[in-house]
Amino acid sequence: MILVRVVLFPLTFLYGTAILIRNFLYKSRILSRTKFDFPIICVGNIAAGGTGKTPHIEWLIANLKDEFKLAILSRGYKRKTLGYVLADEYSTPEQIGDEPFQIKQKHPHIHLAVSENRVLGVPALLGDCEDTQVILMDDGFQHLPIQPGFSIILTDYRKLFYNDWLLPSGTLREFRSAYKRAQCIVVSKCPTTLSQQEKQTIREHIKPLPDQLVLFSSLTYGELKPIYKTEFTFSASTEILAFSGIAHNTLFKEELNREFEKVHAVSFSDHKDYSENELNDLAERFQLLTTSNKILVTTEKDAVKLRSPEALYILGQLPVYALPVAVCFDKHSEDELLTALRQYIYTTLSENV
Fold it and tell me: Are 298 and 320 in contact (CB under 8 A)?
């Protein structure tokens, strides 16, 4: 790893220089940041991908939707469209991106839009959805033209940002010190057995500002859900062909290995668009499993890509399941975060009546 960092150092130096210049231009106000007089909560990270932004957005929806009219604004990564798009019941992953599509499918009554330019996307979304009281901005921490009122950054427990390096030597999108722009730092994907002593050690390494929250979240997995109509009675002895196109699939595989005795895993790149050849290869691998007691399992994020006519034709008659995932906080962390969010939202709304 050290050798790789040494080899990549020239590129890391150039990337870091570009980040420094960008930050200077914004700090000196040569480039401007827009701050709206409206509650905008950003969920992002400093590292590239894999920290669990979508489950955390869904946690915020679940805990705020009964109190406030919410709307989601995302850039819609890897969508085939450009500009601002307001999602509806007919939207596809190609139009709005796989993760926004997943959110819209699970929360159809929540307003959701995508726009690579968030400064233009916010007023467009508020114009289309006038009852909105709070915007949840998905993955906008590095989008400096807009200044959210409340930023939550996630850092993976297994790859904490203070031990990481700038791209391409590491996975950091910007310098470690960027955490100071956030109101809340969430250490995500923690083991549920994480001790108070280890939490305190992590806090000491992060060195939060006096008014910053440092909280800890874990992933929990639900019961397998069939993607197509074909259902199968399975048990711990059922053989699993698991496949996933997510940034880090370690926890996905660990969960399946806990529940099933025999798991074969196939990994793809993040935000994978499955080709016809790849789908056929998965079907062939499945058929080669000698037992009849077998199913295919993928992630919720990948499941949205398996609604295409090609996927339906190739996999539609097979028992394909998605493994649901959700976020949980301990009671103290949950109360602390929701109290801070409610205070920010109500204060911002009251100041702009």
Answer: yes
